[in-house]
Amino acid sequence: MPRDRFGRDINYLRLSVIDHCNLRCVYCMPLRGLKFVPSDELLTAAEIELVARAAVGVGFHKFRLTGGEPTLRPDIVDIVGRIASIEGARDVAMTTNAILLPRLAKPLREAGLTRLNIHVDTLNPERLKKLMRFGTIDEIEAGIAAAEEAGLTPIKINSVVTRDYNERDVVDLARRAKERGWHVRFIELMPLGGGEAAHVALSQFVPSRETRQRIEAELGPLLPAASGGPSDESSNFRFADGDGIVGFISPVSEPYCGTCNRMRLTADGKFHLCLLNDDELDVKRAIRSGGGEPAVAEILRKAVLGKPTGHRLDEGVSTEERSMFQIGG
């Protein structure tokens, strides 16, 4: 298992497979002025498999496919199957907005996908249109139902809390978790990439403590629940009555950098060393110049050793070269 300079075991690789998305959430993607990676500059399914095999050889065992929206890749089922077939890849997950799951959930499960996180910021149709812009509650609900039918349970929901958009809707999502046994995680905004999205992150920020207070005022006290381990970025809670888990991911108000175990691969083939820093190492160049697994493994080892101790948001320093949709969260 690779260990960085600060004694953290880095064993979790997040793979952004595309930077396109079929939504335009206000804190992530503007409506205009977007530039996407050309198709021939995206890593191919075979190249993604090569990176995953090298990562397993180095000591990684947990993988998550992200975007943009990963289900927009026409070969996403093939990608999942390739990674899931690697001996030592014990956990293959995906983050998605669920819109395309009615036709993809079952094939993804059969290909070896083990878990899903579904992004939905509100259950209110009008506020969803305002915040996530495209897509509808009916489409997302159909995707969730397809995931449940395919056995990709328990359902995990990611909700980014944005003031003046959905901060009061957190209670409805928490109530749904309680009623249906979901795991809902409320995420603080992070300023990435400059422009409109970064402005929203700074001006519409809601700390997790406020979100928790709002939920407890309506649904009663939240009791501590088991975490997924020391590197779990979510502080998890359960209800005194009813099923479901409510989690809070607080990178700004309660940073968890000291236990971070993640490395990120961008859709255009760069290891992004820390979500909130611009440091990157190019792996696609090595692959396309003839380097195989050993070359990729060596770059990955350098990336792990170069991983910073944490973000510097308190100093006003954040990712400027890439937006969230270009990194995959």
What does this structure look like?
The structure is a single chain. The protein has a single domain, classed as Alpha-Beta Barrel (TIM Barrel), CATH 3.20.20. Helix content is 33%, strand content 17%. The protein has eleven helices and twelve strands. The chain has helices spanning 45-58, 76-84, 101-111, 125-131, 137-150, 170-180, 195-203, 208-219, 284-288, 293-306, 324-327; strands spanning 12-16, 62-66, 91-96, 115-119, 156-160, 183-187, 222-224, 234-239, 245-249, 262-265, 270-272, 280-282. A twelve-stranded mixed sheet has the order 7-8-9-6-5-4-3-2-1-10-11-12. Helix 1 runs parallel beside helix 2 (76-84) and helix 3 packs parallel to helix 5.
What's the CATH architecture? Answer: Alpha-Beta Barrel
- Structural class by sheet pairing and helices: alpha/beta
Shape: globular
Q: Termini separation (Å)?
A: 23 Å
Helix-strand string: EHEHEHEHHEHEHHEEEEEEHHH
CATH level-1 class: Alpha Beta
Reported for the largest beta sheet, the result is: 12 strands, mixed
| CATH homolog superfamily | Aldolase class I
Query: Which consecutive residue ranges, at least 5 long each, have pLDDT under 50?
Result: none
Strand content: 15-25%
Say how many strands there are: 12
Put the structure in a nutshell.
This protein is an alpha/beta fold and 329 residues long.
Question: How are the SSEs ordered, and which strands pair?
Answer:
Blueprint: E1 12-16, H1 45-58, E2 62-66, H2 76-84, E3 91-96, H3 101-111, E4 115-119, H4 125-131, H5 137-150, E5 156-160, H6 170-180, E6 183-187, H7 195-203, H8 208-219, E7 222-224, E8 234-239, E9 245-249, E10 262-265, E11 270-272, E12 280-282, H9 284-288, H10 293-306, H11 324-327
Parallel strand pairs: 1-2, 1-10, 2-3, 3-4, 4-5, 5-6, 6-9
Antiparallel strand pairs: 7-8, 8-9, 10-11, 11-12
Helix pairs in contact: 1-2, 1-10, 2-3, 3-5, 6-8
